TrEMBL record:
Residues 1-28 form the signal peptide. This is Uncharacterized protein. It comes from the Eukaryota. Keywords: Signal.
Length: 85
């Protein structure tokens, strides 16, 4: 007496499961790579922004010919524009 499933059906099921497991491993691997890329991009963005707001970059959002930009003392901490008026 033979089993309930013919031999061909079992090999197709095994092949299907092998493909599914292979795709799952590829997806997990790619997800880890994307997470690493996003983490590096976030870290670089934060480092870039921190470097912009140090030192002489207090006038970052003001035009060079603005009277407000020339009134800001580079040695003092950043002040709110509303405090000037």
């Amino acid at each position: 007496m033979q089993g309930a499933y013919p031999h061909g059906t079992m090999s197709q099921a095994a092949h299907f499961l092998l493909i599914v497991m292979s795709l799952q491993m590829a997806i997990v691997s790619n997800l880890r790579k994307l997470e690493a890329i996003c983490e590096a991009a976030l870290h670089d963005s934060v480092d870039f922004l921190v470097s912009l707001f140090r030192g002489a970059s207090n006038n970052l959002f003001l035009r060079d010919d603005s009277t407000l930009s020339s009134d800001i003392d580079e040695s003092s901490p950043i002040t709110d524009i509303r405090d000037k008026y």
